[in-house]
């Protein structure tokens, strides 16, 4: 792998490297992927050596390192498990960054607050992984929460991990917006798309598009600039609508919205192919607000449960702070066995 990186870097030094933009981008992506794997291996090797050294000290009679050794072993086990899970990412776009769209569902202010909580959860997950998190689009409500938000989480394999989050998320809690203190159930939908680079070609006829521009708005709906920089694009044949308002210029917002549209169209194509296969296999699938993928219960007990894998975690606040790897990993492992 090291030799492959060196070979690629030699190719990058050639004067004609950028003559073929598509090949150049693919080589850069491949090289980065190799480097990330090498760095991960080096870290595992370093942590293993530290555990071995602490073990040696204890065997020689110095038991003051026992707590440190226990922590080191747990850390190493987690890293090894996550490395194994990362090898399950074989999808065509799994290595890509991800666009995460969150929409408040039924439940009024509670649903809007729930959508905001999910936005924070995914942002915190990305930050914990040292990924770059950007807000592409955000529609806030003047009373509470958000109606919709679109995040771009940039990094290696982000889409491969977060594609498991696509679906309906259900919240059960005592509503802070109900003076009677009743328990409320709220829903929000999460959609996850790969961020496609320039090397991915999607045929889009300009005549099939309707582009609307409007002024970007902040909290409560007030306008945050005086120009029509926000962009909404409608793909007329499919009815797909994408929008972006958080870039600095109309041109940048349009570029980002077109990336989102490309990802949506590819997702639609893949879904149609999957539906055809499921029809042939007799698989019945239902997508509705009643078919949530995960429930987050704050009352009468604390529990997060994934209904696809039956994975459970009792620390709801930790999950809301971005600790969702348990559910992501269990989903990837289940998918592996389902395909066998």
Detail the topology: elements first, then pairings.
Blueprint: H1 2-12, H2 21-59, H3 66-86, E1 98-104, H4 108-128, E2 132-140, E3 146-154, H5 158-162, E4 167-174, E5 183-194, E6 209-214, E7 230-235, E8 240-244, H6 250-281, E9 294-297, E10 303-306, E11 312-313, H7 316-320, H8 325-339
Parallel strand pairs: 4-9
Antiparallel strand pairs: 1-3, 1-5, 2-3, 4-5, 6-7, 7-8, 9-10, 10-11
Going by helix content, strand content and strand pairing, the class is: alpha+beta
User: At the third CATH level, what is the topology name of the largest domain?
Assistant: Alpha-Beta Plaits
Uncertain stretches of 5 or more adjacent residues: 219-224, 283-288
Radius of gyration: 23 Å
Strand tally is 11
Q: Major β-sheet, in short?
A: 8 strands, mixed
Q: What's the architecture of the largest domain in CATH terms?
A: 2-Layer Sandwich
Q: How would you sum up the global shape?
A: globular
Number of contiguous helices? 8
**Quaternary structure type:** single chain
Helicity range: 40-55%
Q: How many domains would you count in the coordinates?
A: 3
Strand order of the largest sheet: 2-3-1-5-4-9-10-11
Q: Mean pLDDT, as a whole number?
A: 82
N to C succession of SSEs: HHHEHEEHEEEEEHEEEHH
Q: Give the DSSP E fraction (strand runs of 2 or more residues).
A: 15-25%
């Amino acid at each position: 792998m090291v030799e492959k990186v060196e070979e690629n870097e030699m190719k990058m030094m050639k004067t004609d490297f950028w003559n073929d933009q598509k090949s150049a981008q693919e080589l850069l992506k491949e090289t980065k992927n190799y480097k990330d794997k090498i760095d991960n291996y080096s870290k595992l090797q370093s942590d293993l050596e530290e555990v071995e050294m602490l073990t040696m000290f204890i065997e020689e009679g110095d038991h003051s390192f026992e707590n440190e050794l226990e922590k080191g072993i747990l850390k190493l086990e987690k890293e090894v498990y996550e490395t194994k899970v990362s090898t399950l990412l074989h999808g065509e776009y799994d290595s890509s960054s991800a666009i995460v769209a969150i929409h408040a569902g039924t439940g009024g202010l509670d649903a809007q607050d729930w959508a905001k909580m999910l936005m924070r959860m995914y942002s915190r997950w990305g930050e914990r992984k040292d990924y770059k998190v950007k807000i592409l689009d955000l529609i806030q409500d003047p009373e509470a929460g958000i109606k919709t938000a679109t995040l771009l989480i940039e990094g290696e394999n982000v889409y491969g991990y977060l594609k498991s989050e696509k679906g309906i998320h259900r919240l059960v809690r005592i509503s802070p917006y109900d003076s009677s203190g009743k328990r409320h159930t709220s829903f929000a939908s999460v959609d996850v798309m790969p961020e496609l680079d320039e090397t991915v070609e999607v045929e889009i006829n300009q005549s099939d598009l309707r582009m609307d521009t409007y002024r970007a708005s902040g909290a409560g709906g007030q306008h945050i600039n005086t120009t029509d920089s926000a962009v909404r694009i409608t793909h007329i044949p499919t009815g797909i609508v994408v929008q972006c308002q958080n870039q600095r210029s109309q041109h940048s917002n349009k570029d980002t919205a077109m990336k989102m549209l490309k990802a949506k169209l590819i997702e639609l194509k893949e879904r149609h192919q999957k539906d055809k296969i499921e029809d042939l296999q007799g698989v019945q699938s239902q997508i509705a607000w009643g078919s949530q993928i995960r429930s987050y219960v704050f009352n009468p007990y604390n529990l997060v449960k994934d209904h696809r894998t039956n994975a459970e975690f009792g620390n709801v606040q930790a999950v809301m702070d971005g600790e969702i790897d348990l559910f992501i990993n269990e989903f990837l492992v289940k998918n592996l066995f389902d395909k066998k």
